[in-house]
Design brief:
Layout (H helix, E strand, L loop, with lengths): L1 H15 L1 E2 L2 E2 L22 E4 L2 E4 L1 H10 L2 H12 L5 H7 L7 H7 L30 H6 L15 H4 L2 H4 L21 E8 L2 E6 L3 E3 L4 E3 L3 E6 L3 E6 L4 E5 L14 E6 L5 E6 L3 E6 L5 E6 L15 E7 L5 E6 L3 E6 L4 E5 L14 E6 L5 E6 L3 E6 L3 E6 L17 E17 L3 E6 L5 E5 L20 E6 L4 E6 L3 E6 L5 E6 L14 E7 L5
Antiparallel strand pairs: 1-2, 3-4, 5-6, 7-8, 9-10, 10-11, 11-12, 13-14, 14-15, 15-16, 17-18, 18-19, 19-20, 21-22, 22-23, 23-24, 24-25, 25-26, 26-27, 28-29, 29-30, 30-31
Helix pairs in contact: 3-4, 4-5
């Protein structure tokens, strides 16, 4: 832009000094076409007429008559300036009676050999100026017999003064990618365009970010869990968001309205979250205390509600212990306190509390003296990883969810039972299906119920064949963080760091933005807009 401005100023200055692009040449006093001297005279060969110097026509006639016919022919040759021999004719001009023809020889220094000098502009005629040594250059200029009007040879070509290519380098000039503004036509853009040479960036509305060509909804979660018919996740800002069914207040948003896209619970920071069938539990960062909300029909919240309240629509504190992990099953809950001790509470009919009984508990109950690294609860069963990295499961085993190669009501376990001799990094339980990541290959394995495609291997979801797996089965997917819900599963892609869900979506639990009745046997990207 600066170079273009400099160019415009230069051209303007040139045209101020020019007329129609041609440079004006000032005519001096005493010259032909100029004003007469104060004494009423003009330069040699000119006379003063009405204040202006003009050619003395009568003088030309007398000069011609004083020369011989032969000399006159020679001088005519000099006037035309067609040949280099005209230089010699300047000498013959000195023989004229009046001597004026000698003056004509003087003008030969400027190339004008005749009094008219119309054609004597050739370089060769300049050689005839041998007789003009007594006349100064100024006199020569004064004797230059030219017309008042300038011919094309006397004009200055602007292109010879300014080389535009030297001023404006095409390599330094680029089109502004923000003109016209491309952001106006981009969905969810605020219309603000920022250019960087030939690239542009669009500003996006709240809840969206620029992704190179579109304003993309935020999809950055640190952790996500799936419940019976709802899902919750902790975003990168450590705020808790939940969506899906909310009949018993399990979303924690102080209402019972379902949400088909993520809804922020509160402004607290959270470090752990787990979703059950109709209840949710999480650990806040500020105090490491455990909070639960939603349905409490079997004591799954871990604290007693007033008789008039069947459920809790906002987070409520369980006790004063400091917790490092929590898991919500369908209607029971387990957690690990800071010293590694395991506690469970809620429904216990299938032995899912792991205390060797089939009774329900309304407050946290200690399970043995072993130290645990991880715990996860499903529908009527639970699995956990001890300090030795071995996987243990207990409770119901109707669909092979315990992963021991058997299934049926007679295969229930009331205490923690080892699955196999493999070492495990993580374990995730849904309603009746289980997923885990082995330490040996860091790959995902799932087993149990697959009626709605909740194993994510593409073999389920048509509701005509369960395709259950009774032992850990490799799933052809790569996930860093995973959660198995009641009828669906969610995970964060290892490469893209984005959230995907699959399985049943009748109440919006897959997070597609619609609450349809479709089953998703393969992962689907989740989006939210704030």
């Amino acid at each position: 832009m600066l170079k273009k401005l400099i160019l415009a100023v230069l051209i303007l200055l040139i045209f101020i000094a020019c007329d129609d692009g041609k440079v004006n040449v000032n005519i001096k006093d005493g010259e032909e076409g100029g004003d007469c001297y104060n004494n009423g005279t003009c330069d040699d060969g000119l006379i003063c007429d009405d204040g202006k110097c003009i050619e003395d026509i009568s003088k030309d006639d007398s000069d011609t008559s004083n020369t011989s016919e032969e000399d006159n022919d020679d001088n005519d040759t000099g006037n035309t300036g067609d040949t280099g021999n005209t230089g010699n004719t300047g000498d013959s001009g000195n023989t004229g009676d009046s001597g004026n023809s000698g003056d004509s020889g003087n003008t030969g220094n400027t190339g004008d050999t005749g009094n008219t000098g119309d054609t004597g502009n050739t370089g060769n005629t300049g050689n005839t100026g041998d007789t003009g040594d007594t006349v100064s250059d100024d006199t020569t200029d004064n004797n230059n017999d030219s017309d008042n009007e300038l011919d094309d040879n006397d004009l200055i070509d602007i292109d010879e003064i300014i080389d535009l290519d030297d001023i404006v380098d095409d390599s330094d000039v680029f089109d502004n990618p923000c003109e016209p503004n491309p952001c106006i036509a981009i969905s969810n853009s605020d219309g603000i365009c920022t250019s960087n040479e030939d690239l542009f960036t669009c500003g996006c509305n709240t809840g969206f970010k620029w992704d190179g060509s579109i304003c993309k909804s935020h999809n950055e979660f640190a952790f996500v869990v799936s419940g019976g018919w709802h899902t919750c996740g902790i975003a990168l800002d450590q705020k808790l968001r939940c969506w899906g069914s909310n009949y018993h207040g399990q979303l924690g948003i102080n209402s019972t309205l379902e949400k088909c896209s993520p809804e922020k619970v509160d402004d607290y920071l959270w470090i752990a979250i787990s979703a059950g069938n109709d209840h949710t539990c999480g650990i806040r960062k500020t105090d490491n205390k455990l909070y639960c909300w939603g349905d409490n029909n079997f004591g799954e919240l871990g604290y007693n509600l007033p008789v008039s309240e069947e459920y809790k629509t906002i987070p409520g504190k369980v006790n004063n212990n400091s917790w490092k992990e929590v898991t919500a099953g369908s209607i029971h809950t387990c957690g690990i306190i800071n010293d590694g001790t395991l506690y469970c509470w809620g429904h216990g009919t299938y032995g899912e509390l792991g205390d060797g009984t089939i009774f329900s508990k309304s407050t946290p109950t200690k399970i043995g003296n072993d130290k645990w690294l991880e715990i996860s609860a499903g529908s009527g069963y639970a699995c956990g990883i001890k300090e030795d990295r071995k996987l243990y499961c207990w409770g119901t085993n109707n669909y092979g969810e315990l992963g021991m190669g058997t299934s049926g009501v007679d295969e229930n376990k009331t205490t923690p039972t080892k699955v196999n001799d493999d070492e495990w990094l993580n374990v995730y339980l849904g309603r009746s299906h289980t997923c885990g990541i082995k330490k040996s290959d860091s790959r995902l394995y799932c087993w149990g119920w697959n009626y709605y495609g909740q194993l994510g291997d593409g073999t389920g979801g048509d509701e005509t064949n369960d395709n259950n797996k009774l032992v850990p089965t490799l799933v052809n997917s790569s996930w860093t963080i995973l959660s198995a819900g009641g009828y669906n599963t969610c995970g964060i892609d290892k490469e893209k760091k984005e959230l995907y869900c699959w399985g049943r979506n009748n109440l919006g639990q897959v997070g597609t933005g619609t609450c349809d009745s479709l089953n998703y046997g393969s992962p689907v990207r989740v989006e939210f807009t704030y």
